[in-house]
Amino acid sequence: MKTIEVEYAIIGAGTSGLGAYSRISRQTDSLVMIQDGPYGTTCARVGCMPSKLLITAADHAHHLHTGDFFGVPSSGRVEGRKVLERLRRERDHRFVARNLRYIDKIPNHHKLEGRARFIGPGRLMVGESVEVRAEKFILACGSRPAISEVFNPVMSRVLTSDTIFELEDLPRSIAVIGMGVIALELGQALHRLGVDTTLYGRSGRINALTHPIMQRQALEVLSAELDIQPCGQVLSTWEDAEGAWIEYEQPDGQRITKVFDRILVAMGRVSNLDRLGLEQAGVEITDRGTVSFDPHTMRCGNLPLFIAGDATDHLPVWHEAYDEGRIAADNALNSPAPAPAGRRPPLMVFFTDPQIAIIGQSFQQLQGREIVIGELPFTSARHVVWNKVQGRIQVYLDARTDVILGAELLGYQAEHLAHLLALAITHGMTAEQVLAMPIYHPSAEELLRDVLIDARKKRKRHEAETVSLTTPA
Ligand SMILES: Cc1cc2nc3c(=O)[nH]c(=O)nc-3n(C[C@H](O)[C@H](O)[C@H](O)COP(=O)(O)OP(=O)(O)OC[C@H]3O[C@@H](n4cnc5c(N)ncnc54)[C@H](O)[C@@H]3O)c2cc1C
Ligand SMILES: NC(=O)c1ccc[n+]([C@@H]2O[C@H](COP(=O)([O-])OP(=O)(O)OC[C@H]3O[C@@H](n4cnc5c(N)ncnc54)[C@H](O)[C@@H]3O)[C@@H](O)[C@H]2O)c1
């Protein structure tokens, strides 16, 4: 048994753990970063980057079918093996390699490999033979795909985002379980690459969007292209020579039974905190399998524990993991005095076609507030030129102050308008301030101008109505 005594222990060498490491290692040599499994981060190995590489190949395949409209018919076919080989080559040589180069530069005495678990306050076991004693801990252990037991009989054909990018070739058919961001991004990409794809949802909604019109339109637009069973429950699964069978029950009791080569389970992720033995460190785990913490310090209660990234199950996206690693480290370094950090407005983008984006406060979060909604179909002149006119944009303004509070978008390349709106929200800008900037013709940004003009009209009407209501007769 070997014992290591340090001031700081970081559990996990993903985006958030490495962010914490970069901060703490500038201040002290008394730290260790513990990593279970391969280095390289979830984002680069099995997350953001391979999924976007697959989507880009799928977009190219899609153009083969849509070129006719522009008088540019294309012939060509998808070569599944080459698609996946290129994905892995780009991923490994460009994105994972960059991470590994950084890991290589970290001194060996700062790195420890193995699974960490608490054996008491301030004490961790790593594997079976190393004990780490530390004063402060950064819990940056990420999350893993959730898989329900109903899929146990077909496990040999089940894929998750952890395994799908390692396939030698594309499957002939695939069932995608879930209607969240992973299911929609990968499901649409696989469909566009020629895989016979069916998505099975549970709630009937694309939950990231919260306005009922946005939810309905997103489902309509995506269902026009994809085979989606939005609402129901997988009752049972079994395997035979034909493949993996799924029995799915719809709300009206109707049952659908279908066989697939593969099943991609994308029904959410669970925090790896449950494997840390936190109860040994005196930490209470919430019903959601995570711990309570202050988002401005990332500190868990009054304990010398700081959490970051997907382990929190709160805003599980890359830029938040990046920020949280640094916030957790700064507060650990400063502790017991807190160093609270401001947080950025929420921003989430689904890289589907059309894209889905949510910025700032959602429609649901604004319930009870006096807002006006600027709203338009996603049809600027530029979108017409692209022949990409599906979708809708809603921008939520404070009815009294004109300040932009949030937005929900469904549209081609919505990510760019989403970032402009994020900039406006970050700086507390009003719609009139955004309308003061020049906007080129014909650009997609004209849609932002037009939706804010729509909001302006509605705000004037709202003001007039409020005045007439409050003016004594
Ligand atoms: C398919 C997919 C696509 C995504 N696409 C996007 C996207 O387009 N944009 C975006 O913003 N976000 C995206 N995300 C989310 C993004 O990847 C994550 O938010 C981010 O990678 C989280 O980083 P992290 O540091 O919290 O976790 P990780 O990078 O997962 O790091 C945690 C590390 O801790 C290790 N660990 C766990 N338990 C222990 C233990 N007990 N002891 C030691 N080590 C341990 C794990 O092995 C892991 O290496 C995507 C995620 C997935 C799965
Ligand atoms: N573009 C991006 O930023 C991006 C891309 C991929 C992943 N991610 C991150 O990864 C996280 C995980 O993504 P995800 O798509 O797995 O989770 P999610 O929470 O977005 O979606 C899970 C989906 O599975 C459904 N579901 C749950 N149980 C089910 C069941 N038994 N049967 C059928 N459906 C069921 C839910 O209703 C939901 O639609 C996201 O929260 C996101 O932060 C981000």
From TrEMBL:
It holds the Pfam family Pyr_redox_2. Its EC number is 1.8.1.4. Residues 349-448 form the Pyridine nucleotide-disulphide oxidoreductase dimerisation domain. Keywords: FAD, Flavoprotein, Oxidoreductase. It is an enzyme of class 1 (oxidoreductase). This is Dihydrolipoyl dehydrogenase. Its cofactor is FAD. It comes from Modicisalibacter tunisiensis. Residues 8-325 form the FAD/NAD(P)-binding domain. It comes from the Bacteria. GO terms for molecular function: dihydrolipoyl dehydrogenase (NADH) activity. InterPro entries: FAD/NAD-bd_sf, FAD/NAD-binding_dom, FAD/NAD-linked_Rdtase_dimer_sf, Mn/Fe_SOD_N_sf, Pyr_nuc-diS_OxRdtase, Pyr_nucl-diS_OxRdtase_dimer. Belongs to the class-I pyridine nucleotide-disulfide oxidoreductase family.
